[in-house]
Amino acid sequence: MRTGCILLTCVVFGTVASCFSPCIAETLPPNSGPIQAELVGKIDAGRAKIGDAVYAKVKVKWQDNNLTLQEGATLKGHVVAQSARSKTSKSSQIALFFDSVEYTRNDTRPLRLTLAAVMAPDDSDPDSSEYQPLSDAIGVVLQSNVSSGPSKGNPVRSVSASAESVYFSPRRDKRPKSIAVGEVVGIRGLKLSMGSGPEGSSVLYMSGRNVHLESGSLLAFLPSTSEALPTNERGAADSTNTIPAPKAAAPSQELADGDTVAEEADACIPPDCNLALPLGEAELRSKTVSAIPVKEFGYGVPVDHEMYGFDYDSAVAYLGPAKLLFTFNPHLLFKRSNAEAGLAKLHMIRAVVMDLNTMKIEQTMDWRIHDANQYLWPAGPGRVLVHVGRELRMYGSQLKQEQTIVLDDRLAFVTTSPSKTYFAVGVVQERHSEKIHRELVRAEGREPEEDVEVRVLDAKLHVLATVLQSSRFVPPVLSDNGEIGAVAVGQGRWRIQEQTWDKQKHVLGQVSSLCRPQMTSMVPNLLFVVGCDRRGDGRWYRVFRPNGKLLLKGWSSSEELEQTVTSSDGGETFAIRVVKTTRSIGRGSLFQTVDLDNQQICVYRVENGKRVFGFRLASPVPTKQSFGLSPDGDQLAVLSGDQISLYSLPAQ
Predict the structure, then answer these.
(1) Structural domain boundaries enclosing 87
(2) Are 418 and 550 found together in one domain?
């Protein structure tokens, strides 16, 4: 019995601290208190029905004497009563009761919870993806300076000394500092009556319109007890019981001592930096080209179809100065195994290795690919990393399999450092049972948040560190010294910064973009960045040097898309492709293959960003990996129509 005792709770997003009256302080652990969760999907009294399932994700680790809830655990409730606004009733209400929690994929347990407070979702940042450097979690220096002992000369996985896996904390949002038990913040006209409904449910009610909660609303729960908290005359709990809410996020992050920021307005002044200017007529005429017909390999030109972006149906990569790898989907019918029966995107990829001196095929191979994501990554001179089935395979120049990694679950991503010294491999760890997974997809309208195990590997695919993070985080962009990320520092403003494995921060620049900048690292430790123009539907692109200075600056109109980069292994040149369309296409808009007019590919010097070669080619193929530079940078291969064109590049 807790008669005469008032429980005061203090909650900060990312941590939980509790303040208790002396009479019960000794009976509760120091980190119990309200359970903070985020609503999954929308709730509307005009559409909800009694019995409908309602889900919320735990945002902060919580525990009491008998129970621990990890961040990401799924709380399940249901609608126990509902009435919509009508001609005869000007008010609406909906009663919610939460009665179970899914700890892991196969572990669901009863847990009676009372909804105690509601806060509107944080809409201050339209970009829902998150970024936090891997080194914040692993805390390691991957290039060890150990000079003796068993770790001499070897990378150090110091994460094993502190934890087997590490969870990232969620981003703090910009909502009020505290709310009272029974209070609703940020949703005009909405009231909460705590624990007063059927089955001990909490009732949300509103006059003049239907009760409506947006996805992402913050919910605070108290474990249900036999006694109700004291309430005031309006039905809300006594306001002396407060739940401090997430602390407001700072408008910008402090820079380390000595850091400087290269503003977007900084001039691009030759000869150290160049502008990506339109091609001249003389450049378009002076080309030496040979072609390889690929139709005889079984390749077919993609038929016209709708898309939101280019795919990974085919790829071009060099396996040596005179060896070219061409992979593509031959669209063959094949028999599925029982294990493959549920793979909706299962398809076959054919790999063909050609000797460019003799123009003969040296090797062919077929791979079974489980999804429509990227399956091939250049992995250094003469090597490629390929995702086949539930494996990552390293192949040499003759497609000889050198190493294999067996994956426990779905592959989320693979990223590589420019010199291919490090690889980051993300593998999905399913949080939910198949049933709850389907219900969450239906409620949220997208794939639910999952855990992703990120493994940092060396060039021989040995594991250096393992980190557990949310699938909402953007895949890491690796440099040769650590990781590069885009940090929001204001509305439409981003700081591009590198964080080394030993947690040293280096600011490369600050840019303005209406969308999260997309980044690609390339040899020799350069960074290609694409952002959204703040004045229209166009896109800009930049190439940064390791010291943060601009090397190249370009801009594309809304009639140009798929700005993509590749570089030579020798680090002398890089190439940028921009695809021209026949009409203006807004960001995130649907388009078709027939909307593609031509592709412009330009080759630039790493030394000063000067263009040394450029051309336009009709019939662009809507695939991301349709062009590649030879290792020494003297040849460019481009897939277009039903042939691969080979261009001889000027000597450096």
Answers:
(1) 8-125+172-244
(2) yes
In the block, which residue shows the tokens 């140009």? 560
Q: What DSSP assignment string belongs to 82-100?
A: EE---SS-SEEEEEEEEEE
Q: With contact defined as beta carbons under 8 Å apart, do 448 and 411 qualify?
A: no
| Cα distance between the two ends of the chain | 83
Tokens 């408008």: give the residue: 251
Structure tokens at 440: 């969450």
With 80 as the cut, is the pLDDT of residue 422 above it?
A: yes
Sequence letter at residue 15 = T
Q: Is 172 helix (H, G, I), strand (E, B) or coil?
A: coil
Q: Fill in the DSSP letter of residue 160.
A: H
pTM of the model: 0.76
Of 319, 496, 519, 505, the residue nearest 418 (C-alpha): 519
Domain end call among 244, 278, 301: 244
In a domain, 338, yes or no: no
DSSP class of residue 620? B
Tally of CA atoms within 13 A in the half-sphere of 310 that contains its CB: 21
Does residue 351 share a domain with residue 311? yes
Quote the mean pLDDT of the chain: 81
Based on its alpha-carbon atoms, the radius of gyration of the chain, rounded to whole angstroms, reads 28
Average pLDDT over residues 459-471: 90
Co-location of 155 and 35 in the same domain: no
